[in-house]
Write a structure and sequence with these properties.
alpha+beta, Ribosomal Protein L22, Chain A, four-stranded antiparallel β-sheet, two-stranded antiparallel ribbon, Ribosomal_uL22_bac/org-type, RNA-binding, ribosomal protein
């Protein structure tokens, strides 16, 4: 979903039900919030966290959506001017599984998932 604002192009990308807990994803997303897209992609590329790969895919999708919106609106867009204005991680559905416990019992396991949303906007020149 993208729109042309007064300040420029704004585009977003959402990745749903990523198989990683929101707590671990937020550790990475907090590092890139408010940064320029090129700086954020460089940080994600060299991060050791597994969440960085998933967030990088979502960020690349948001950039592609911005380029497509600019092309559709017949505007020029420089990817170097894009800034991450909104980056949030929400909790997705929990997968409920069971694991064996002592004396023939079973203990529940919650495998958490995440929804990642990234919004990029063209910075004011």
């Amino acid at each position: 979903m993208a729109k042309a604002a007064k300040t420029g192009i704004e585009a977003r990308a959402i990745q749903r039900t990523t198989r990683q807990s929101p707590y671990k994803m937020r550790l990475v997303i907090d590092q890139i919030r408010g940064q320029r897209v090129n700086d954020a992609l460089a940080l994600l590329k060299f991060s050791k966290k597994h969440a960085a790969e998933q967030i990088g895919k979502t960020l690349n999708s948001a950039v592609a959506n911005a380029e497509q919106a600019a092309r559709a609106a017949n505007l020029s867009l420089d990817v170097d001017t894009l800034v991450i204005t909104k980056a949030i991680v929400n909790e997705g559905p929990k997968l409920k599984r069971w694991t064996p416990a002592a004396m023939g019992r079973a203990t529940p396991m919650l495998k958490r998932t995440s929804h990642v949303e990234i919004v990029v906007t063209e910075a004011v020149r």
